[in-house]
Write a structure and sequence with these properties.
- The structure is a single chain.
- By secondary structure, the chain is α/β, with parallel strands linked by helices.
- The chain has 2 domains: 2-219, YjeF N-terminal domain (Rossmann fold, 3-Layer(aba) Sandwich), CATH 3.40.50.10260; 226-496, 3-Layer(aba) Sandwich (UDP-N-acetylmuramoyl-L-alanine:D-glutamate ligase).
- It is 41% helix and 15% strand.
- It has 18 helices and 18 strands.
- It has helices at residues 6-20, 24-41, 57-71, 89-99, 138-149, 196-199, 211-216, 226-232, 258-270, 285-291, 327-337, 349-356, 374-381, 387-401, 436-450, 456-480, 483-488, 490-496, and strands at 2-3, 49-53, 76-81, 105-108, 122-126, 154-157, 179-183, 201-205, 221-223, 247-251, 275-280, 296-299, 316-319, 344-346, 369-370, 404-407, 413-415, 421-423.
- The strands form 2 sheets. Strands 1-9-18-17-16-15-14-13-10-11-12 form an 11-stranded mixed beta sheet, with helices on both faces. It has a 7-stranded parallel beta sheet with strand order 4-3-2-5-6-7-8, with helices on both faces.
- α2 (24-41) packs across α3 (57-71), α12 runs parallel beside α13 (374-381) and α15 (436-450) packs antiparallel against α16.
- The longest helix has 25 residues, at 456-480.
- The relative contact order is 0.09.
- The model has no long low-confidence stretch (mean pLDDT 96).
Length: 499
């Protein structure tokens, strides 16, 4: 699913109007009807409803919705924020229509006109939409605060008022919605952690926008959906043998940290790699041989791995889980970088070592995958003031170094060197636990060994990882699930894809 910018959404509306030969207010009717049916299906039309509207097209959506509710015997009061400017054409049309069914319409000209909101009321927010171009101020900001202070549930139409569609709103006065009813496609703002307390749970409602525009218009950002994943999958040939599915190398583990190597190793094998060799210190030999009998071991060093002899012969390489950040780690990384290998995944202590010694970064080979969480990313590339800035930095650094960045989070982003960004929507908060990143590293390693190219290996790996996490949460609860549970659920996650 494509994620369009605010400008593209405006163009999408215009293209739909031209293509379908309709008036613009017909789309407003579609949007209002979609919201009305959502409210009806969720049994939210049995209580008094207050609809707060601006005078733009988002306000027009609110007026149309209020009319539909009133025509179906719902108790509705409408409040219009008056900022001294004329309303949009479609707003005025819907205001005229609303006057035909009610006189319970109030204009808010100052804070003295703010209504008392009873504890029984549901609030509909239709003050500002995706066209917002500056932070709310004055009476608009005060009204937003008044609505939030009521503590009544708020349903926002299209986007919570005060939130920008595709840039940071961190300092803005913004509605704290319980639900956001948006139209046709996800907004980038919904995927940013900084907006979670404002967006609440978002729902994407179809309103009949142009399919042709959606197919043909390029988008920088996309959500990984079943169609994308299905196109990536590579079925196993029935006459194949283990050599057809690659030989992976995992450089992982140290004294007291061998669990990371176990998790990554098991995940790699569950991802379908033909063979796996673990590059480990001698302290971990018995652990790996007893817990991952499918894996082979290459031992160098006692308490931490000190070498990577012949590692270039493997089909894919992962470095980092539990390796430690002693001075030898940097030298080990440099040797691997200089091996000329192109299928490399870097995670955890590999990233920490690079952050500690920034001289390593210029040596990172093109085509490498790094999988940082936000703190690791900041340590590598510098802090960001907001989530949008961090994403922009990731796009810039992926292009600068020619690498793929898997920026982990609730909606993990896979960023390509060409600037394309794919967001993953599988997974849950129960995965915020130790070892989950090690599992992801192992999955991507195994998929790369199997022959999946980039960025497909990262896209499929992240999606599979999140799907297994969702299955694990269903079985063990988000509180109790552990990284090892996620590995155990990978076979069922594969079944979701028809594997």
């Amino acid at each position: 699913m494509k994620i369009f910018s605010a400008a593209q959404i405006k163009n999408w509306d215009a293209a739909s109007i031209r293509e379908q030969g309709i008036e613009s207010d017909a789309l407003m009717e579609n949007a209002a009807a979609a919201c009305y049916h959502w409210l009806l299906n969720h049994h939210l039309t049995v209580q008094p409803i207050s609809v707060f509207c601006g005078k733009g097209n988002n306000g027009g959506d609110g007026l149309a919705l209020a009319r539909m509710l009133l025509q179906n015997n719902v108790q509705v009061t409408v409040y219009i924020l008056e900022l001294g400017k004329p309303g949009s054409t479609d707003f005025q049309k819907n205001l005229h229509r609303l006057h035909q069914v009610t006189t319970n319409i109030h204009f808010i000209q100052s804070e003295n006109f703010f209504p008392d909101i009873s504890g029984e009321e549901l609030i509909i927010d239709a003050l500002f939409g995706t066209g917002l171009n500056k932070p709310p101020e004055g009476i608009a900001a005060a009204l937003i605060e008044h609505m939030n202070n009521s503590r009544n549930p708020v349903i926002s139409i299209d986007i919570p008022s005060g939130i920008f569609c595709d840039k940071s709103s961190r300092a803005n006065a913004a509605i704290k919605a319980a639900h956001t009813l948006s139209f046709q496609a996800i907004k980038l703002a919904f995927l940013m952690p900084e907006n979670d307390k404002f967006v609440g749970t978002f729902h994407i409602l179809p309103i009949g926008l142009s399919k042709k525009y959606e197919m043909e218009e390029p988008a920088v950002h996309e959500i990984l959906d079943p169609a994308i994943i299905k196109a990536i999958l590579r079925p196993r040939n029935k006459f194949s043998h283990k050599g057809n599915f690659g030989h992976a190398a995992l450089v992982a583990g140290s004294y007291g940290m061998m669990g990371a190597c176990v998790l990554a190793s098991r995940a790699c094998m569950h991802a379908g790699a033909g063979k796996l060799t673990c590059y480990i210190p001698s302290c971990g030999y018995t652990i790996i041989q007893s817990t991952v009998p499918e894996a082979m071991c290459h031992v160098e060093g006692e308490k931490y791995i000190t070498g990577s002899k012949d590692i270039q012969k493997h089909d894919s390489i992962a470095v980092g889980p539990g390796v430690g950040i002693q001075k030898e780690t940097g030298a080990l990384l440099l040797d691997i970088f200089r091996s000329g290998h192109k299928k490399i995944v870097l995670d955890a202590d590999a990233l920490n070592a690079m952050a500690y010694d920034k001289k390593l970064l210029p040596h990172i080979p093109e085509g490498v995958v790094i999988t940082p969480h936000p703190k690791e990313f900041n340590n590598l590339f510098g802090p960001s003031t907001n989530d949008f800035e961090r994403l922009e930095t990731a796009v810039s650094k992926a292009a600068e170094y020619g690498i793929y960045i898997v920026l982990k989070g609730h909606y993990t982003a896979i960023i390509t060197p060409l600037g394309k960004v794919y967001f993953n929507a599988t997974g849950n908060a129960g995965m915020a636990k130790a070892g989950m990143g090690d599992v992801l590293t192992g999955i991507i390693l195994g998929l790369m060994a199997r022959g999946y190219p980039l960025p497909e290996a990262a896209m499929l790996g992240v999606h599979l990882h999140g799907s297994a996490g969702d299955i694990a949460a269903a079985r063990h609860t988000q509180e109790s699930m552990q990284a090892s549970n996620l590995v155990d659920c990978m076979p069922d996650a594969w079944k979701l894809f028809g594997a």
